[in-house]
Design a protein that fits this description.
The protein is of the alpha+beta class. It has three helices and five strands; from the N terminus they run αβββααββ. Strands 1-5-4-2-3 form a five-stranded antiparallel beta sheet, covered by helices on one side.
Length: 116
């Protein structure tokens, strides 16, 4: 069995969830209410196990007018989410029109919030 690099795993996970993230992002833009997406811990591990192996997947990605406002340089999972969000033109357009926070908590729940 070939082990995938964490970056590849995260890319695949975010690509899988992109349609749902896009829908929830647009919903948050429209209503102003936070949106939540429950994810699975095992999806974030390159060997398919649910053991963390010391990797911290909790992050906050702050995007204002299409630009990342916080330092995510050491958080591959956040970097990959940002990369995937840029691949979808409809998502990129929404991101350029507001200020959003993407938070992944320790229970692997992604929360999307609009900031004023």
């Amino acid at each position: 069995m070939v082990k995938k690099k964490a970056k590849e795993v995260y890319h695949e996970v975010w690509k899988k969830y992109l349609p749902l993230i896009s829908m929830k992002l647009k919903q948050t833009m429209r209503t102003g209410d936070p949106s939540h997406i429950g994810m699975y811990r095992f999806e974030f591990h390159s060997d398919g196990t649910s053991k963390s192996k010391g990797t911290n997947h909790v992050f906050m990605l702050d995007v204002k007018n299409g630009r990342v406002m916080n330092d995510i340089s050491k958080v591959e999972v956040a970097q990959e989410l940002n990369s995937i969000l840029r691949e979808e033109s409809g998502v990129e357009t929404v991101l350029r029109a507001g200020h959003f926070h993407f938070n992944l908590d320790s229970n692997f729940q992604l929360t999307i919030q609009k900031s004023e």
